[in-house]
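Exercise 3.2. Students should predict the tertiary structure of the chain below and write it as structure tokens, then compare their answer with the key that follows.

Predict this chain's 3D structure.
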Amino acid sequence: MRRGVFLSVFLRIAIALVFVALAGFSSLPHRWIIAGVLVIAWAGISAFSLARSVRQDVTLLQNSAAAIPERQVGEITPSFSDFDGLARAISVSSDQVNRSLSEASESRHELEAMIDSMQDAVVAVDPAGRIQWTNQRMQKLIPGASFSSAIRIGHALVQTIRDPEILDCVRTALEQRVVSDGRSTSLLPGRIFEVNVSPMPGGGAVAVLHDITRIEQVERTQRDFVANVSHELRTPLTSITGYVETLLDHEASLSQSAREFLTIILKNATRMNRLTEDLLVMARVESSEQELHPAPIPADILVRDAVQAMSGLVQDTESILEIGEISSAEVFADTDAILQVLSNLIENGIKYGQARNAPVCKVIVSSRDVSDPIEAVEFSVRDFGPGIASEHLGRIFERFYRVDKARSRESGGTGLGLAIARHMVQTHGGSIRAESELNAGSNFIFTLPKAQNLVE
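Answer key:
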């Protein structure tokens, strides 16, 4: 029969008092001493028995609480009913922990199944760079590894993956706690991977490898096709342009209709020539086939040379091209490439930067020193025309994107000038952007690092 601790104590005290009463009525000499000894002996035996029973129940409860993480808690029945509340609390906690662990385990299995189903390779490392987990795709990329084998789990990533680009990205994410992007070409022969490594909140990092080999092949094929077609079109277009110009030189023998037709032919042939030239330049820039020869050059010389090179277009269009504030700091750049960038931006400003009520178009070219985030020179080409709507600003540097398609075709634009400028600036380690407000003009800005940064 189960009983409470206080009830057990009460019973033992009552029995002790009975012994005292019996001893009091005894006729034996020294009866009080004998009674005291009996009481003390009985109290000691009772205390030892009670402590042993309580200790057994406490040990049972401790073992049950310790077994909660291992989910091995069974039915708890202590000897004393006073511990029933604690036993029930442990049982409830055990059930809750079991449910939470079961849900966490199911969530982990679902997450692992989803990551395993990805076509991208994923690997997680701890703060020390040791592999914690990989999906099946990653296991297939690692030579000699299998998904069922745990040999590489816990090993350093550098012992498994020898690719320096991937290791640099992982090291950057672990040390600087920032997202690191890269490109791997030596993990597997003939394969190209886009690498993205993100730090985890609790330490460590997750690396995702996306196979872009097929995409690169398609883009390379497209560039080669465009370059070949553009190259083949140059000869017939040049012939057409030359013959039409020759015919127009003999105006006396041509009727009014013939002159109009030939003028239209010349205009479109010239536009096609510009398009093929821009396509060839774009193909060379994107394929990194264009050889650049960067060298230190003062920014003010670049601005002045670009303005001088556009003097013919300025005279033909009766526009105003001014030089604003300029910096004499040296930038590390290929002169011809940056002059082409400035020329493209100036030409766009002259073609599309005339205000509605202004008699002529005005463009200002300037440069200034900046130091955020690095020491650089910021070039600016500003016009005062109708401006560009905000929904177009994020796309104007895309190939063939036009804000006003009808006006662009009328002016002979190809839609490639800004795309070429962006690629050339990025090749130099700079950045380019556009700022504009409707009816307040547009400002095209690009930055180039100073030459002293590269020297240091």
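Discussion points: The first helix runs from residue 5 to 24. The first strand starts at residue 121 and ends at 125.
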